[in-house]
Write a structure and sequence with these properties.
single chain; 58 residues; alpha+beta; three-stranded antiparallel β-sheet; 3 strands; 36% helix; 31% strand
């Protein structure tokens, strides 16, 4: 069975903006975007999440 560690990060932006920008980044596995109060939680593999957060920082 294949397993991988997942990580999450809070991003203070609406889910539609985060998902659109996050989906444009080339990553190894699909990321999940969960709307929460005042922002979005992004969940992805460690290296993928780092790429997403770095790209969203601009």
């Amino acid at each position: 069975m294949r397993t991988w560690s997942g990580w999450s990060a809070f991003i203070p932006a609406p889910v539609d903006i985060v998902k659109k920008r996050g989906d444009a980044i080339r990553i190894n596995f699909k990321a999940d975007y969960i709307p929460v109060e005042n922002g979005t939680v992004s969940m992805a593999g460690y290296n993928d999440l780092e790429k997403i957060v770095t790209a969203l920082r601009g």
